[in-house]
Amino acid sequence: MSSSASLYLDPQIRDWVLFPITLVMILVGILRHYVVILLQSPPKNLPREAVREQRALTRSQVLRSTCAKSPIPPTYYKSISRHLSDAFEAGTYLKDGPPREGDAPKGPPNPMSDPAAMDGMMAGMKTQMVMMVPQMVIMGWINFFFQGFVLIKLPFPLTLGFKSMLQRGIETQDMDVRWVSSLSWYFLNFFGLNGLYRLILGGDNSADSSRDMTASPFGANPAAPGGAQDFGKLFKAERDNLEFSEGLYSWVGEGVEDRVLRRYGLST
Amino acid sequence: MRLSSFAPPMSLSSALEKLATFRANNTRASQETFQAASVILKSAQKLGDDGWAVLEQLFLASVDIGRLDVADQCLKQLAERFPDSPRVDVLTGIRMESSEPPDVVLQYYAQILDADSANAAIWKRRISVLRRTGKIEKAVEELSQLLDTFYTDVDGWLELADIYTSCNQYILALQALSHALLLAPQNPFYVLQFAETAYTAGDLPLALKTFLVAVDMCERDLDSPEEKPAVGISVRAWLGVKLCSRRLMSNSSPSASNTAIPKSLNLIEELATERVLSAYSKGAGKVPQGKDVVVGWIGAR
């Protein structure tokens, strides 16, 4: 007989340890969701120049996207293309205006010196704190009161490889892998409650804290305003694309009369 | 209040459905909207999120038909529910435009733009006020700046083209329209507008080509176009083709955009004549309106 058959759990453990841990973790997740909503600063209003800088690339992208069968005639295409190319070269669309003679070439912007980037970072740190603090408290609570508890027996057999995952905190060699320790139960909840949150709070909730584990506050949200993008370089690169597209360009009106005539069977 | 005395009794759900269709299609049927929404006005709060959209819709409709008392009610409710909302700011501006002198409104807009210089909705309202009060130059300047910032605004480009056209600056209007074409290359109406503007600007070869592009776009999915008479905007496009080709045949005018005149001009002219006449000869027994004029115009060389 395996040793697991001889092990019996006190129902009090179920009522006073298993359920409370699960309940507390769910409630903390929900609380966290609302705290994050509360902490969210409203999206910052960008000044006109910054918006212009961010959107300047779409101009050439729009132009290029239809270049193989462009709806506009050659002279118009060329003038727009040249104008954009010159503007990108001269840096007209840069937030701070075109670079002047004698300016030192700027390195990549330092996120610490840019207040906008700093704000974005602080927001990331805040959500991280909201995640870290309660999780640390819960883990301490479990470690302090319920260390070495066996909480639950899984209803299916597992291989030995799961031992370190399911019996963290219990140093027994020959206990059946199906028994789950308190600390492991905590981790299972930590990573597995997201589905439940999605049911309770809807799709884009911020209750799940395991997701934040992978995100660092520094690289958070690459689309954040004031991200460390060097638009000067992007513009220079876009010039090559523009030149390339100019080679591909053809007007949709090119030979349109033949197309129409052919459709009516009047081809010359 | 005597809001719905002249409206036929309408059930709540059918009214809501009607309003939702108007919203989705951007229909400006102000009188109908007003009648339908008045049924809902009192219970707007109970409708949840949809109710606020209806309130906004009712507000715009009642400003449109001059029922400022109703508009004020809507605006009050919206402002209480959404303080600091940029969208309500726009509505407040629209309400001010309806009764205040333009200077006051412009000042109000300038104040908002000072705080948030990239607020496109307010910016556009400001431009519209400038244009309406005759400060065309200022309006063009602001609109160009707006489009320089928010390039993808097709309506903005069309408005700019419209302003230029109203000032007889057809070449500039063509430039503005070419941006609209780039942004919405699938819309034959813009192509047609481009063609007509090119015709007005005197660039006949370009106009002819663009009219043909419009024809090509409209009839692309027809299997055998010669069997059916032209309908919709392709009638207008064919008329344009006819007009351009006839004028080009009598004297070849130079093209500002260096567009070559098609070699098969005669064939195109004949085809256009045929298509225009076929569009005006349809209908069993009923002569289409304006047929005599068109036939007379085509006959006159």
- Taken as a percent bin, the fraction of beta residues of chain B is under 5%
What would you call the quaternary organization? heterodimer
Q: How far apart are the termini of chain B?
A: 63 Å
Uncertain stretches of chain A: 217-227
Arithmetic mean pLDDT of chain B: 86
Contiguous low-pLDDT stretches of chain B (5 residues minimum) are 1-7
Explain the layout of strands and helices:
The complex is a heterodimer of chains A (about 270) and B (about 300).
Chain A: H1 11-39, H2 48-65, H3 74-90, H4 115-145, E1 150-153, H5 163-166, E2 179-181, H6 182-192, H7 194-201, H8 231-248, H9 256-263
Antiparallel strand pairs in A: 1-2
Helix pairs in contact in A: 1-4, 1-6, 2-8, 3-8
Chain B: H1 12-25, H2 30-41, H3 49-64, H4 68-81, H5 86-99, H6 102-115, H7 120-132, H8 136-149, H9 154-166, H10 170-183, H11 188-200, H12 204-218, H13 233-250, H14 265-280, H15 291-299
Q: What would you say this structure looks like, in words?
A:
The complex is a heterodimer of chains A (268) and B (301). Chain A is 54% helix and 3% strand. By secondary structure, chain A is an all-alpha fold. Chain A has one domain (8-101, 108-144, 186-268). Chain A has a two-stranded antiparallel sheet. In chain A, helix 1 (11-39) runs antiparallel to helix 4 (115-145). Mean pLDDT of chain A is 80; it is low at 217-227. By secondary structure, chain B is an all-alpha fold. Chain B folds into three domains: 1-96, Alpha Horseshoe (Serine Threonine Protein Phosphatase 5, Tetratricopeptide repeat), CATH 1.25.40; 100-185, Serine Threonine Protein Phosphatase 5, Tetratricopeptide repeat, CATH 1.25.40.10; 205-301, no CATH class. In chain B, 69% of the residues lie in helices and 0% in strands. Chain B contains 15 helices and no strands. Chain B has helices at 12-25, 30-41, 49-64, 68-81, 86-99, 102-115, 120-132, 136-149, 154-166, 170-183, 188-200, 204-218, 233-250, 265-280, 291-299. Chain B is globular and about 65 Å long. Chain B starts with 11 loop residues before the first helix and ends with a helix. The chains are: A mainly alpha (268), B mainly alpha (301). The A-B interface holds A 45-48, 50-52, 55-56, 58-59, 62-63, 66, 70-76, 79-80, 252-253, 256-261, 263-266, 268 and B 115-119, 148-152, 174-175, 178-179, 181-183, 185, 191, 206, 209-210, 212-213, 215-216, 219, 225-226, 257-259, 262-264, 267-268, 271.
